[in-house]
Structures are given as structure tokens and as C-alpha cells.
Amino acid sequence: MATERPPSFELAKGINGLDKIVLRQSRFRSAEVYLYGGHVTSWKNENGEELLYLSSKAIFKPPKPIRGGIPLCFPQFSNLGTLESHGFARNRIWEVDASPPPLPTYSSPNAFVDLILRPTEDDLKTWPHNFEFRMRVDLGSEGELTLTSRIRNTNADGKPFTFTFAYHTYFSVSDISEVRVEGLETLDYLDNLKNRERFTEQGDAITFESEIDKIYLSTPTKIAILDHEKKRTFVVRKDGLADAVVWNPWDKKSKTISDLGDEDYKHMLCVEAAAVERPITLKPGEEWKGRLELSAVPSSYSSGQLDPKKVLQ
């Protein structure tokens, strides 16, 4: 409803004239969402620092998906099905949802936008299911970024459908070799570099010195990404998304990705809230909800003063 829109909601023209939404909380605290892909491309803190990573070679030209930010993988994660890799939601034009279903009201004046995607005729040929995908992108007063997705089966033929999903978040990091991920230790994972064979994580944290592409299973609702050099910790909170994908292509793989710079891998890390191992099935009228909340907190972990376990509690 138009009356719900805060004054911090702006519609603007982005790269190559594509429509984007700008959310503002203060002079520097902001987020940007392209209607192409329902794609969050920017999330800045109170100092105006960019917290998401956007490829130096990102192509803002449909139908090519945007490389970086937070691509949406729906109705298929990766190549786990018959559709194009990661599905079609990330390269469709979304609409601003004028009458979204109610979500919790906030005591603080959050800046948010509600978007909606429905299938095109072409989508129905390749994935013959009617759905409504509604997403709220919300920038909180403390700078936290929340994406709440609601996917509803609107099939009139009584048929259920099944999908996999991920928020494919690219975080901006100072130097990938100085980063560690905590909260996934001792968990089982599927290794995409080894034909999705199942292993158990052995380290007390995940660190990076080569290509990684793993799907961690039955993960906690909170994961921490510690960036020693920037003295910053990203906290990933998630609901309705049991899995977490950790990806960095490293140097050789980066050179094979046309819309990724050769050196980009050093300054990016994907930690993705996902539903992969157990696909979600919805009967007609049923709705699934998946929520991702990202926050960035200062940490002096590099001087041994931050207990990451406290961040994860």
C-alpha cells in the first residue's frame, strides 16, 4: 500500500538505464535493488563503505544475470535440475508490489520495498507452475539488511511444485586469505568440486587458500564471517534455509568466468543461505517463507579481543 512507503524509498535509473530502488537510512547508510532480478547490488554502512561485492566486470544487460551483490537462485539452485543454472528469477524484471501481505511492523522507521515476481509465458513452458514470489528488502535503523521471501503455489490445476533456493550473497572482504568463517565447523557438507561427495568439516573455522565450493547441511541460524584486516565481522542470520553454500573461485576458475575480473576473487566471498539438500514442496495455496538478515559489526578479532562464539550466540 502506497501509504506504507517510507520517504527513504526512491525509484531511480541505474546502470544502462535499468530501474533500481534506493533505500536510505542516513546520509551514507543505503541499499540498492535492481528490478532486474530483484537483485540487491549495494549495501553501505554508516561510513559509506560498500559491504557487498560487485564484480568489476558485472554486465547490466538482460538476459545476462548481474555478477555480485545478492542474486536470487529460484526455482533451481546451480544445475540441480533441468533449468538454466540458478533458475530464472535472477534474470526477470520484477515489479514493485503495491499491496503486499502484512509483515511485522517495526518500532523503528525502516526503509523497505516490496517486490513481486510472477511467471512469464516462457517460464511456464520450461517450468509449468504458477507462483507468486514476493520479497521485502528492508534496511534497518542500525544498518542491518533483511530479505524476506514468500513463495506461494498459485497453480489452478491442483498440482504441487518443488524448488531449491539460495540467496547467493557476495560479501566484500579485504583479502580472502585473511578471512575466516565460523559456525559451520564439524558439519557435513557436499563438495561441488568432488561430484557433491559428502564429507565432514574438520577445521575449527573455514579459512581460504584455494578454490572452495561446498554446500554445508543442517546449518545453524547464525554464521559469522570474520575479516581480520578490516576488523569487521559479518553476521548472517537465516530462517527457513537449512543449508549454507561457501564459494570462492580462486585464481584459475576466475579466469574462466567472463564477467568476473581475474583478481576479483581476492576481495569477495560468497556465503549463501540456501535450501538445497531438501527441496521445498508446496501444494496449491501453500506458502514458503525464507528470511536472511545481514549485519556488519566492528571486531578487533585480529588483536584477539573478540570472542567469535559470542557473536554467534
From TrEMBL:
One Pfam family recorded for the sequence: Aldose_epim
CDD domains associated with the record: D-hex-6-P-epi_like
Enzyme class at the top of the EC tree: isomerase
GO molecular function terms listed in the Swiss-Prot or TrEMBL record: carbohydrate binding; glucose-6-phosphate 1-epimerase activity
GO biological process, one term: carbohydrate metabolic process
Catalytic reaction annotation: alpha-D-glucose 6-phosphate = beta-D-glucose 6-phosphate
Swiss-Prot/TrEMBL keywords: Isomerase
Coiled coil: none
EC number: 5.1.3.15
Gene Ontology CC: one annotated term: cytoplasm
List of catalytic residues: H168, E272
Annotated family: Belongs to the glucose-6-phosphate 1-epimerase family.
UniProt name for this protein: glucose-6-phosphate 1-epimerase
Organism field: Brassica campestris
